[in-house]
């Protein structure tokens, strides 16, 4: 091992510089600057090159983190890129938006006492540099194998699978009801976490490799699922989960109470240069408003921080548990607080006040009770603790469930779990329909980008194996 590793003893953790909150609030650009090359190398050199790297064990993609850290520390960036991209189709995206505190970095052995290696920032740096220097090439196959694959959904799961299958010589057709590829990367996650040009360049690269995108095409709508099946030797369903969980109670139907993804999609479209009527007329625009966001996950964090950037008069986040028991990343809570969001922990809405439109939320204080069967502390309202929060825009961010796909696809033989997610064989990724596979949130329920990439890769490998056995044309690339 070169002397330049194991520097954690002398060198403190340094993340890339974070822009000042006042500056961040004024735009939708990412909040972290790029690493300066010497700092990236120095930070990579803090790794102790563990024999059993827990960072890798806890990365869903089993990324070979110690190797690419060592190569970065040695300035061998092109090799670092080769290693990093061997297990991850979109390392620069995961490096930006994985909740590293819960995955690789949270399990780095030097975390205790020395602060973890900044794995995500180095991962992002390696691939951003690779793009800058022209090392990232389209995955064009050497030989076409004569077989064709239809992928429904251009989110991270569908795109990772498309990349893998195209490289193996399949004619890959990706269908998406949206007008742009990327799924939640493009219309869910805001630019301050992931700038849109990062997603667009991946889409362009896939097109350059020969992947054919059919955008604005809803399967089960304009194009029946059965017709899609007939077009291709194999099909992957990667449609994500989009049915927003709703909230009941008096006044819950008042104008001014909106769903998180509707709000974020409109904001992202504006950011992409569109003029969206619901933004222009104020219905889905927080400018000048008192905003209350209900929920404590990633989506809620994205809503509060979007509202700040749109110029809201005040932004509060109501969550029924406390900071330690929230599902969202604590790093994002810190960012939101720096930007001026107020968190009202241990509080739940009971009613929405208003006549023609909402003007307030009546909430109740909660207390944490005993852990339930899942080990999570239950919550119960504290009697007589009601209070009212002013709100002229209420954003519901309570999570997502799958749509009824068997009905939408008019395919009753497509089996689902009791949660409505698609049932697959966990080894083969095949659904109840022969030759039809599924991956990503539609199988796992709302999850993470990195798991979508992992599932997309694994499903692609299984589709390849299945087509070698079952498809009618010999796989020429073998
Ligand atoms: P999706 O990304 O949802 O893509 C599915 C695609 O399928 C969509 O483009 C959709 O239009 C298309 N589709 C659906 N039905 C049809 C149909 N019938 N016909 C044609 N096309 C169809 N994860 C992280 O790791 N880090 C984060 O910071 C993070 N932040 C998030 C913020 C928000 C607001 C949200 C909502 C999620 C966030 N996530 C985050 C989760 C992450 O985005 C998802 O887990 C991931 O995108 C799932 O990938 P997917 O490919 O399964 O589905
Ligand atoms: Fe960490 Fe995510 Fe990168 Fe894996 S993919 S190394 S979990 S940032
Ligand atoms: Fe390096 Fe930390 Fe991974 Fe060990 S756990 S190999 S120190 S990044």
Describe this structure in words.
It is a single chain. With 478 residues, this protein is α/β, with parallel strands linked by helices. The protein has three domains: 7-132, Fumarate Reductase Iron-sulfur Protein, Chain B, domain 2, CATH 1.10.1060.10; 148-241 and 402-470, FAD/NAD(P)-binding domain, CATH 3.50.50; 245-396, 3-Layer(bba) Sandwich (FAD/NAD(P)-binding domain), CATH 3.50.50. It has helices at residues 21-24, 37-44, 54-57, 65-73, 77-87, 91-97, 111-114, 119-132, 156-167, 184-187, 196-208, 225-231, 260-271, 277-280, 298-309, 330-339, 405-408, 441-444, 449-470; strands spanning 148-152, 171-176, 212-215, 234-237, 243-244, 257-259, 290-294, 314-318, 342-344, 347-354, 358-371, 377-390, 393-396, 400-401, 436-438. The strands form four sheets. It has a five-stranded parallel beta sheet with strand order 3-2-1-4-15, with helices on both faces. Strands 6-13-7-8-9 form a five-stranded parallel beta sheet. A three-stranded antiparallel beta sheet has the order 10-11-12, with no helix packed on it. Helix 2 packs across helix 8 (119-132), helix 13 (260-271) packs across helix 15 and helix 15 (298-309) runs parallel beside helix 16. Residues 59, 61, 63, 65, 88, 94-95, 98, 100, 103-104, 119-120, 123, 450 line the site of one iron/sulfur cluster. Residues 97-98, 152-158, 175-178, 183-184, 188-189, 193, 218-220, 238-240, 261, 264, 298-299, 302, 440-441, 447-450, 452 line the site of flavin-adenine dinucleotide (FAD).
